[in-house]
Amino acid sequence: MSQSIEVLDQRTQRDLQFVEKMEVQLKGLENKFKQVEDGHETNIARQYKSIKAKMEELRPLIPVLEAYKADALLVRQFKEEAANVTELLGTLQEQMGGLDYQELHSRVMSLEDRLRACMQRLACGKLTGISEPITIKTSGSRFGSWMTDPLAPVGDNRVWYMDGYHNNRFVREYQSMYDFMTTDNFTSHRLPHPWSGTGQVVYNGSIYFNKFQSHTIIKFDFSTSLISRSRQLDFAGYNNMYHYSWGGHSDIDLMVDEGGLWAVYATNQNAGNIVLSQLNPNTLQIIRSWTTNHPKRSAGEAFMICGTLYVTNGYSGGTKVYYAYSTNSSTYEYIDIPLTNKYSHLSMLDYNPRDRALYAWNNGHQVLYNVTLYHIIQ
C-alpha cells in the first residue's frame, strides 16, 4: 500500500503543477471576461459573442480543478495515515496483544478501500500535453523498439531492446536504465520465431510479438524461455498489407495501458481502417473489438492511454497527435497535441502506464516523452 501511495503521490505532484498553472490562467481569463462583459456595448458584437461562448466552455473547469487539488491533498493525507498505521503495526509486533487487533485491522482495510478508490479516480485521464523528448541512448539501426515492463515488481527495472523490424529474433535484456544508458552489458534472449514490425510489448514477465509474415501473436515467457501461448488474430492484415505510413511490416501493433493488453491492426472487412481489440494477456483471446474510421496506412504511429487510442499524423518532420478514439464511449475526435520529432523518423511509439511516459525509437535514438493527463473527477 505504501508503494502504491508513493507512485500515486509522484503522479499527482507532477500533474498538480500543470493544474495550478491552468487554474490561474482560467481565473485570470474569467476576470478579463467580466471586464469585457461589463462594457460589451463598446465591443464588436461578433467578437463578444465568440469570447462569451469560449468562456462558457471554460468556466465549468474551475471547480474540476479545485476538486483535483483536493484529491492531491488527500494523497498526502494517505501518506501520513499509512505511516501512522505502520507505526502501530510495529508496536503490535512488540506487544503481541497489547493493542486491539480488530480495530487496527479495520483501520488498514478502510485505508486500503479509500486508497483504491482514489487511485481509480486519479490514475487515468485525457492526454493534454507531451513533453520535449529526452534522449536516453543512440544505438541500433533506423528502426526498432525498446521498453520496460509496466507490471514488473518493485526493484525490477530491466530494459528490453529489439533492433530492426523483421528477420531478427534476439532480444537484449539490460538490468537497469542506468546500465542501458552507460554500458553494453546485456543478456541476449533468442525468440523461437523472428518478429514482424516494432509493435512488441513486455508485460508481466513475457514478451508479446507478431510472428514474421503471419497474423499470429506469440506470448513468450522469459523465465522459462518457452512459448506460453500463441493465437492468430483473425482477418488482421499482415506482411505490409496494412502498415503504418512508415512501412516496416508494422501491420499489427501491440500495446499496453492501464486497462491491459491491446492490438491495433486493420482488416479488409473494415476497409483497411484501424481495428482496436482488447486481448486477454493469458489466453490472447479477444475480449472486445472496436472499428474506427481511420485508415491504418495514414497513421504515423499510435499508442493507448486509459482506454483511448491516440494516433499521430505522420512519422517524419513536424508531427502531432491529431486523432483520438475512446473505447469507453466508442467515439472519436480530432485533437492537436504537438510531438517534437527530434530525429525526424519515428518507427515506434508506446505508452508505459507505470512510468506515465512514451517510449520512442526515433531514427536510431531511444527517446522518452513525459505526458500530462487531464483527470476528470467523477
UniProtKB/TrEMBL annotation:
PROSITE patterns: OLF. Residues 75-121 form a coiled coil. Keywords: Coiled coil, Disulfide bond, Glycoprotein, Secreted, Signal, Synapse. Pfam families: Noelin-1 (PF12308), OLF (PF02191). Residues 123-375 form the Olfactomedin-like domain. One of its GO terms (cellular component) is extracellular space. InterPro entries: Noelin_dom, Olfac-like_dom, Olfactomedin-like_domain. Disulfide bonds join 124-306. GO terms for biological process: signal transduction. This is Noelin-like. It comes from Stegastes partitus (bicolor damselfish).
